[in-house]
Queue: 3 jobs
Job 1
Amino acid sequence: MMKIAAVALLGALLVGAPSPTPTPIADGSGGSGIGIQLLDIPVDAQDDSRARTNIVDNVAPGTTIQRRVTISNFDGGEQQASVSAAASTVVDGAFTPDDAHPNELVSWISVDHPTLTLPARSAADVTVTIAVPADAPEGEQYATVWAQADAGRQTASGVTIVNRSGIRVYLSVGAGNGPASDFAIEGVTASTGPDGVPQIDAVVHNTGGRAIDVKGSVALRDGPGMTSAGPFDLGTATTILPGATHTVSIPLAAGLSAGPWTAALTLRSGLTERTETATVAFPVAEADAPVPAPQLWSAVLVAGAGLVALSALVWALVLLRRRSSRAHARAAG
C-alpha cells in the first residue's frame, strides 16, 4: 500500500459527520458545472501522472485506504451535488462507466459526505474510503468516484442532461507491491483516418499485470527535402488491460506529403516509457495517384479514337450540306 503525501488522513469515517464548510473558488479557476479533483497523492507516485489524477494502488486483503477529493461548483448559482462510486470497465481502449454491472470494488468504497450543498463558485472536500475485506480476491478491479449535480438540464427537445465528473479507481489486491506495469510497441505504420487526415498507428501490447493508460507523441523527420513535422500528441489516453493488444492512432496534420518519413514515437503510461522509430509513408489518395503507363496509353488511344470519330462526323455533315446546296441550285435553274 502506498503512503499518502502532504496531509494526514484523520481516523475512520464517522456516519453522519457534519457537512464540510464550502470555500470560495479562486478567481480565474476554470471549469463549469460540478467538478472533482484528487487531493492526496501517494509519496511513491509523485512523478506518476496517473496517480496524480486517479486513485491507483495495490493493497493486501484486509487493508483500508483513504483519499481526499474536492468537489467544486463552478456555476453562478447554488448546486446540490451527490458523490458516489460506480463500476467501470475497459471497452475498445476507453475507460468506460458500467453502472449496470456493479463489481466487488464498488461495495468496498464509501464517502463521508454523499450529498453536498455548494453555493455558487465554491468547493468542499470529501474523503473516499476503500475498505478491502480480508477475503478479497487477488487481481485488479476498476471503478469511478462520481460527483454529480442533482438537478439535470433539460434541452429544447426534452432530453435531460446530467452534469457529472469522475475520478478513476484502479485497485489491485495482492501481496507486496503487486504486479508490475509494462508494455511494448510491436509495430508502427502510417494510414489515413476517416476524415482524410494522415495518422501514425502503433500496436501496443500490455505485457504487465496492471491496466495502463497510454499517452504520447510522434515527430516526423527526414521527409521530402529533409523536412520535419510535429511533434503531434495523442490527446486522449488509451486504456489497455493486462495481456491485451490495442492499436493507438495519433492524428497528424492535413496536407502532409506522402513521404517517406522517419517517425519517432514515444508512448508512456505512468512512469513506464517506450520509444520506437520507423520509416513510414502515407497512402496516396486515388485522385492524387499517378496514372500507370498502360492506363495512360489507353486513355490516349481512347481520346484519339474519339477525335477521329468526331472529325468523320463533321466531314460527313459538310459533304451532306454541299450536296444539298447543289441540288437546290439545279432545281432553281
Job 2
Amino acid sequence: MHPSLLKFTTLALTVVTLATPALAESVLNVYSARHYPTDEALYSDFTRATGIRINRIDSDDAGILTRLRAEGSSSPADVILLVDAARLWRAEVDGLFKPVRSKTLEAAIPAQLRAKPTDQGETAWFGLSTRARVVVYDKVKLAKADIDSYEKLADPKLKGMVCIRSGSHPYNLSLFGAMTEHLGPAATETWLKGMVDNMARSPKGGDTDQIKAVASGECGVAVTNSYYLARLMRSSKPDDRAVTEKIGVAFPNQTSWGTHVNVAGGAVARHAKNTDNAVRFLEYLASASAQNHFANGNNEWPAAVGVKFDNPALKAMTGGSFKSELIPISAVGMNQLKVQQMLDRVGFK
C-alpha cells in the first residue's frame, strides 16, 4: 500500500483526571496494523489515565513497514503495532525498531514471546497477545483423532477434504516456518505437498471462509486462527452460531510440541521522538486491564504472565488451557524465504 493511502486517525480524548499542562500536551504517534474496533477503548483509556494524546496511522503489516523504510529518520512514528510474528522479526532485522529496557515488560512477557535481548540487554519488540492456529473439522465425517496434529493434514485419508487460505498469507507462512523448525526442510516440503494433494479446492478467502466451508460440507477440515472461530461462537447472529454447532475444533500436537501460536506485538520505532511515552504505552498494553481487553474484546489470549480472563468462547475451545509450542520467533522468521520456495515447488497457491 502506498504511504499516501494510509488512514490517519487522531483519537478524540476527554481528560477526566487532572494533569499538568506539560503532560496534557504530550503526544504519541502510533503506526498500527490492529484494525479491531474494540481496541479503541484501549487508546481512550490510556489517554484518560495519562493525558497523552494518541495520533494513529492504520495499515497492514506490510504497508507499515514500507512506510517506515520510506520515511527513514524523518518518520514521526513512536510505537509500531504489528499482528504477525514473522513481520515483527523482519522489522527487527531491518533495524526499524529501537531496542529498549523495561523491567515491567521483561517481567510480564515470556522470553519466547519477545525479541532476543541485545548484547546491551535491550529488547526490540514485545508480544502483547497471541492467537492459536487451530484445525476445525466436520464432526459427522471425522473424529478429532483424525486431525489432532498438523502432520495429519497430509494424510491420504483426508484426500479432497482440506481447505486453507493462501499459503503465502503471513499466518500460514508463520505456521509453515514453525513446521520447518520441527520437521526439517525436506519433511516439511513433503508435508506441504501432501496438503496440496488433499485440498478440496484451491486456497481462497480468509479464515472465516474456511470455517464456513467446513460447516457447509464443502470441506471436511480447515485451518484457522482461533479468534475467527471465537467471533462466530460469540456472535449474536443465528447463522454464525449454527456454523459453530456443525464443527469441532482441535488444538494440534498436544502430545508433542504443542499448537502453533502467532503473536501480535509492539515496539518503539527506530526514530521515535517520544521514547518515554512509547515505553509507557507498551507497558500499559502489558497490564492486566489491557491484556483482559485483548482477550474479551478481540478473542486473543493474553501474552502477559498470570493474567486471568473471562472469555467463554476461548474457554469452551480449550477447556481452560492448551499446550503451545515454544519455537523462537526468530527461527520462524528466518524460515520464511525457504518456506516460500517450498510452496512454489509443490504448487501451494
Job 3
Amino acid sequence: MGEIRNAERTRKAILQAAKEEFFEKGYTGARIESIAKRAEVNKQLIYHYFKGKDQLINETIHEFLTSLPTGHLTLPANPVHIAEFRLKVNLENLREFLKFTAWEAIDIIPENVNGEEMRKKILQSYNEDMKSKQEMGLVPEELDPALITLMLSSLTIYPLLYSNVTRMITGHTLEEPEFQQQWASFLRMISERIFNKENTH
C-alpha cells in the first residue's frame, strides 16, 4: 500500500514539475532533464511512468484542465456577462496555461500532444452554449456562435498575454487592479451592445 502511495506521489511530483517546465518554456524548450531536476527524481524514473515527452505533455495538460473546478468552465446564463466572467477565470486560474498556448504559436509541436482533444471539447462547448442562447433569443440570429466564441477568447486573452502591447496602447497592464476593472467594465459595455439588451436584463 505504501509503495502505491509513493508511486502516486512521485507521478504527481513529475506532472507538477512538467507543468512548470512546459508552461514556462513551451513544448520545444522543455527538457526531460529539467523536469527531473524540478521533481527531484532520476531522469530514468520519468521514463518509467511516461513513454516520453509527448505523453508527458498530454497528461500534464489533461491533469491541469481536469483539476479546474467545473464552475470555471460553466458560462453565465446571461451572455452579457460571459466576457467579464472569462476574463476573471483567465486572470485567476489560467495565466500560466495561456502563456503555454502562446508558445504553441511559434513551437513545432507533433500532432495530438498538446491536450488538443480536451481543449477542443471545452471550446466547442462554448460554441454550443452560444448556439443555445441564440435559440433562446438572447443572441442576435445573424451572428455566428463560433465567431462570437473566437472574439470573446481574443478579448479576454490578448491583453493578458501581450502586456507590453497593452501597455504601449493604453499605458496600463492587467497587472494593475484598476485597469483590470476598467477592461472588465469595457467588456460588459461592448457585450451589452452586441447582445439583445431587451432580452438580457
